[in-house]
Structures are given as structure tokens and as C-alpha cells.
Amino acid sequence: MPSQHGATHWAKKEAKKLARMSKGVVKDAIPGVIYDKGGSSSSSSPSLGDKPPVVADIDIPEVLQTGTLVTKISEKKKREVVFRIDPDEGTILYKSNKGGIVPIETIKELRIGANARYYREQFKLPEELEDRWITIIYIIDGTYKTLHFVAQTRDVFQLWSIALQKLYAIRQGLMNGLGNVDMRQTIWERQYWKGADEEGDQVLDFDDVERLCKRLNVSLPTPELKRLFNDLDTAGRGYLDFSQFQRFAKTLKRRPELEDIYSKICATNDGKFDEAAFVKFMTTYQKSKLTDPELHTLFEKYAGATSTGANEPAGILSLDGFSSFLLSPDNAAFSDQNMSIWQDMTAPISEYYISSSHNTYLVGHQLVGVSTIEGYIRALLHSCRSVELDIYDGDKEPMIYHGKTFTSKVSLRDICHALAKYAFVTSPYPVLISAEVHCGLEQQDKIVDIMIETLGDALVQAPVEERPKITALPSPEDLKNKFLLKAKNLYVVEQLASAQAARLAEKAAAEKPAVIEAVTSSSESSDNEAEVLLKEGVTDLKKAWKKMRSKGETKDGKEKHKTKMSFRLAALLVYTIGVKCHGINSDVEYAPEHMFSLSENAANRLLKASMQDLVKHTQTHLVRIYPKGTRVNSTNFEPNRYWAAGCQVVAINWQTFDRGYIINQAMFQRNGRSGYVRKPEALRCPEKDLLSKKTQHFLDVTIISAQQIPRLRDSKGQEIIEKSIVDPFVEVSLHIPDWSHSPFLPASATAAGAKYSPSTDATTTSVSSARTVSFRTKVVKDNGFNPIWQEELCLPFDCVGDMKEIIFVEFAVRQQGKDDDDDEPLGLYCVPLGCLEQGFRHLPLHDAQLTQHLFSTLFIQVNIRDIN
């Protein structure tokens, strides 16, 4: 017997069916479909194949929608499971105690057939499974997950392969900014129609519509919703068909704030929105730099695309056309995001910021996380151009893991195969392999063998002896499709240390003869080595090395010198030779290829003591900054603190989705996502003295409205639909580097509600941060679907050298009562201030892992006001 609740639900469903049957013929509930009249209850509903109009290229075979039996594989077991696709909801579904739902938009990569070999071999499964194997990499609840399954036959595998790639490509296309308005609208209608139609009978009664409104965060009083429902149900049938649902959706999505802007523009132009009004709008409000012919073409595109026929005057932009333009890529908020032409890439590589990762092999906690090739693949496919290897002796071959921790291990060979395959898929520009080598001489040589075998001619190398002197670093263009190995060259490290010791000794001797006596007596060997090195110079490395080695041998020829480095490995270090930092003043001479790495603590000390010296050094040399070791939970600093000093390789923990990660991703959305961004002129051209230019400004942002604020998902990937509708507010924050002693923070700003937070260094319990100025709007009660604020915020900021591109503005839509900065926002958007276009703009909202929400936007007006 069913439970009382279950019986009630069943009776309710049957009552709905009978009510619909009693209405007789239901014609055109969905265009082209006629319901049968009378007969059994099953004949009163459309057949299973009848659906809303199908968009080209997203029709999925029926067998995949009903489900196919596949073998689901994990590290622990294999089991037979029915997998199916819901193309309307955009999900993959299977039975599981842990969820069994994979939203298509959460998928980060599909590995099909041989591309998933790494996992098949890891699970020690036979090769015969490979041509039916599918691996899905996705994010749920802030965590990367993998789903592996094997189809029963090749034919079923082909169906799954084609369908998944098709759905994934379409969703990814929609999640790359705005645009594709028609496709987006069609997918919206299919998704929410399907979600609301619980019975699957292709009609929505009032209960369905009320439940849909709750899911959409729409708060309408029941009487008002009932009136709207009845107005649409003109035949009094007690339900809405698909065309009526479309009209209902259009009513919900009405944008009075856009209508108001449109009306005001028309009112200033004799009541019409013609080309002259459009040009005035673009130049006055949008601060457009387009030429007159370009503006004409743009106007024609949107005036022509929305023509409704003979009743619409020619040469007039309709409200629909105006709305389409404001939501289009032609009106994108991020000026540099979708550039098809890269910046000039022919300058020395030291003139570019380089998208960089730290502990790339980890996909979890720094102490106990999993080491895998996934971290490398993920980073490379997102245009990361600097990856890290911590290499240790393995039983047979070198292994990668985090030393002195409980992290797992992965082989260097597997990682190099991943590098070879994925490094240049997204960007052709060079990949820097930053390695810490903890191996003995034998496995150092194996490192060389593996890298040459897997990376081939793409690996930059040069013999150490008779190597020509490098006077300047090559450009990213010169190094296209190349790998640069960066590791400490222990011989060069000793050379610099000995040369530095000699200089210090000479300086001490000149100032205090007594001091030099003590130094030489305690470090005679160092001074002897220094003398050799200073005589030979640091360029003839092999000759100097032989002399040092001969001094470090016993009579029987055995080595006693502490330096143990394969000369073959040294030959792979060409333009990125790792050295220790001995300061950056004029007393220390580094060759252009010498590159040192600084922990954030060391970098912070340099910033405070000699930021100008660091800027000067980075004009000709690469510097890498990495998170300090006490960040055991793999948190990040805010990288723009170090970009402001010219540091190029600022390494981020890509496995941690925090503010540092968000800022890093916002920066490298620029320049065609090539992983390289040209540094500001102030950091490249010392002769112009732009760093002495200090200015003050206001960022004036009007938060106008939001559209369909998303609901958070739970750990199983399902939307969290609470009893109440959200009460949203918007927080706007500026993250500003520490480039002046005091911030610009006028009293008027604090009185208006501006909140200022000074820069901080990391502690054992908190992350470091740049200066932050933030404002919050008022709260809109009970409306997560189309809240309107119309609230102006004025955020003050100072700037040096006009480097607005390394100030970052973050928009976060939050829920009242969950205003702790650590709480996950409902939606966010981050952009370099220098790339934020002015005027009326829609911002696509993302989740905390930077996955774009398909239907969620924030509508704002932007202006930057100069004070001096």
C-alpha cells in the first residue's frame, strides 16, 4: 500500500488527468501536436515523443533519454548502472547514493577513448575497454570530480560520445560571456518547462506554475499569480500549454528598467530611436571609440535583426533590438576578453605577466591532497603557462609529490605526456616548467631522458660549454610552442654565492680590516672559490666547474664537493636558470637568464624595503612569487600586489577557488586567453618616469537590476530550493595594490558607506590581501528573479602610472543574513578595472568556481571620474 502522502499525490495526479480529459480536444498545446479526445487516461496526453520545438543540433537520441546500461568504474569497484541524459534540464543522471546528477554546465572536460588511457591504466583494466571508455571531469560543491563509464557496445559508445560532445559544446558556448540570445532563450524555455511539468503530460496547471515561480525566485502573491494564470488560460481549461507558457515567461521577464532607458532616449530625439539617437547614446553614455561607419554597421545589425514587418518604420531601433544589443557581445563589459588579435608578443618575455600555477600536481589539500596529472591538464586548458614540478627519486623513475607531506605520488613520465598533449591546445605561447629537483645524479639523468623523449624538439636546450652569452631574453613569439625548464643550476648558484661572498669580503676589508680577517679564517674555501670564479667570470661555466670539482675531490678521485647536479640537466636550463636571490641592488649582477623565486614573505619584505628596485629588476629579468609554505590549506594571496611591482610569474594554487584565484583568472581572460598579458607601460618604460604619476579617481557604479539570480546547489548538484525567496544585495569591491603610503579615501566616501580594509600579510589563520574599498547596496526583499536597486555607489581609488588594469573590481550578489565574506556568493563577476567598459553593461554572473550561470546577469551603469 502506498503511504498516505503517496496516495494523496497519486490521486491529485489522476484528478488532473480527468480534468484535462473532460475539456475534450486540446489543440496545439504544443505547436503541431493534437491531443486525442476521450478514451483512456493515457490517450488524454501527448505521446512521449511530443516536446517543445527542438533547437537544431541539440536533439538527443531517445535511447539515451530513456537510459542505457553501462559499466560505471571507480578506483574501488565496477558496477552496472543505467545512465541517461535529460537534454532539457541539461543533466546526466544515474542511480547513486551520492547524488547521481551531473549538470552539463559543470563539466570541465570530456575524455573519450584513448584520451582517458591514464585512468584505465591507473585502474589496471584491459586495453580492450579503451574504445568504449568515457571520463567526465566536472565540479560539484566546489570540488573537482571524475566520472568513468564504459558502454556495452561500440554503437552505444558512439551515441554517448556524440551526444555529450554536442551538449557540452553548446553549453560551453553559452557560458563564455553573453550573446546567442535566441539559443539561450530556447534552452531556458525547454529547461524550465521540463522542470515544471512533473507529470510529463506537456501541460502546466496552477500548482506547476506556482512551483516554477518558487524555483525561479519569483515572489508573486497567490491572487496576482492566479490572475495572470487565468488571463493566459483564455479557454478556461485549468492549465497552460507550451505557447501560453512562453507568454507567461515573457511577462515574468519584462524589464521596466530597460523600457525606462529606452523611453528617455526616445524623448530626447523627437520620440524615436533612430541612428542619430543610437550614435548619441553610444558616444555619450557608452563612451564608444567606434568610428562612424562602425557605428552605422552596428545600428543596422540590431535595427534590422528585430524588424517586425511593414508596421515598423525603417531605420528605427525597437525596444527588443535595443535590449538585444545591450545583452550582446557587441556591448560586452570586458573590453579585452574576446580579442581575436593578440597583443604585440615580440618584446622580451620579461615584459609580460605569465599565468602561473603553484603545486600544479595537487587537486586538494597541500598536506594530504591527491597528486595527479589532472592539475596540469586543467591548468593548461585554462591557458596556464607556468606549471610546477617537485621531483623526487622513485623506485625506478622520478616521481612528483609534495615533499614531507602525506600527498600521493604521480610519475614524471605521466605528467610529461600530459604536458606534451595539452600544453598548446589553448595557447601557442611557451610553457615554463618550474621544477624543484630533489633527485640524485642517476635520476637527474632520467629526468632529462624522459623530458627529451616526451617533449622532443619542443624542449629548449643548449650545451653548457661554449654557450653564447645571452644579452636579452627572447620573446613569447620567438618561443612559440616551446617548453622552458626552470630549475636551480647549482653551479651558478654557487658561483653567485661565492662572488657575493667575495664582494662582501672586499667591502668589509675596505671598511673594517678586522672583520675580513675573521671572515677569511672561517670561510677560506669559499673565498678561494670566489677568487677562481671572479677570474674566470660566470659565463664559462664548465671550465669554472671543473676547477671547483678538482678542488672538491679526495686523492682517490671521489667527490666530496656538496654540489651534485647532472650536467645533462644543466643543459636544459637556458633562458630560465634558477638562482638564489642575493638582493636586487646594484652590487649584485644577474645575467638576463637568471631567475629567482621568492616566497610571498620575502616578496612582501622587498615591496616594503625597495619596491622601486624590484620594478627595475623585473624590467629585464623574470621573477617568480609563490605562496608561503604555511598555507597548508592551499589558499592564495592576491596576485595584483606583486604584479604592481612587475613580477611576472606569480604562482597561484589553482585547486583553491578564492579571491586570489578569481583575480588571476580575470587578468588572464585578457589577450585572447593566451596566458600572457603585456605589462603596463609604466613598468616597461623607465625612461618615461610614469611611476611618479599619482592620480585619484571615483568609480561611479549604478547597480540597476539583476536577472534570475541563481540558486546554490547542494553537494549532490541539486538546486537548493528553500521555503523563502532570496533577499539579495550587491557588494562592489575594488582591490588596489599597495603603491602609495596612504589610500585616497575622502570623508564623503566613508560617510556614504564606503568600507576600507588596508592590505594585510598572511598569518597562519588568514590570507593576505590588497587594499580593498567596498560598498553594499540596500537589500531587495523577496525577489531573486528580477530585483531592481537603481542605487549609485561611489568607490574612491588611487592609481600610479595609470595602471588601472591591475586594480580589480569585483561584483558579488549576496543573500541577506549570509553576509560573511567567507560565505559563497549567489553570483559574482570580476574584471580588471582598466578593462571595464563604461556605460550600461550586463555582467554575466558566475558561481564561486567561476562557472558561468547560463541565465543570470547583473545590469549596471559605469563611469570613472577623475579627481586630478
TrEMBL record:
Protein origin, superkingdom: Eukaryota
PI-PLC Y-box domain segment(s): 569-684
Catalysed reactions, semicolon-separated: a 1,2-diacyl-sn-glycero-3-phospho-(1D-myo-inositol-4,5-bisphosphate) + H2O = 1D-myo-inositol 1,4,5-trisphosphate + a 1,2-diacyl-sn-glycerol + H(+)
SUPFAM superfamilies, per the entry: C2 domain (Calcium/lipid-binding domain, CaLB) (SSF49562), EF-hand (SSF47473), PH domain-like (SSF50729), PLC-like phosphodiesterases (SSF51695)
Every C2 domain range: 678-847
UniProt-listed GO biological process terms: lipid catabolic process; phosphatidylinositol-mediated signaling; release of sequestered calcium ion into cytosol
Organism this protein belongs to: Agrocybe pediades
Name this protein carries in UniProt: Phosphoinositide phospholipase C
Enzyme class label: hydrolase
Annotated EC: 3.1.4.11
Entry-linked Pfam families: C2 (PF00168), EF-hand_like (PF09279), PI-PLC-X (PF00388), PI-PLC-Y (PF00387)
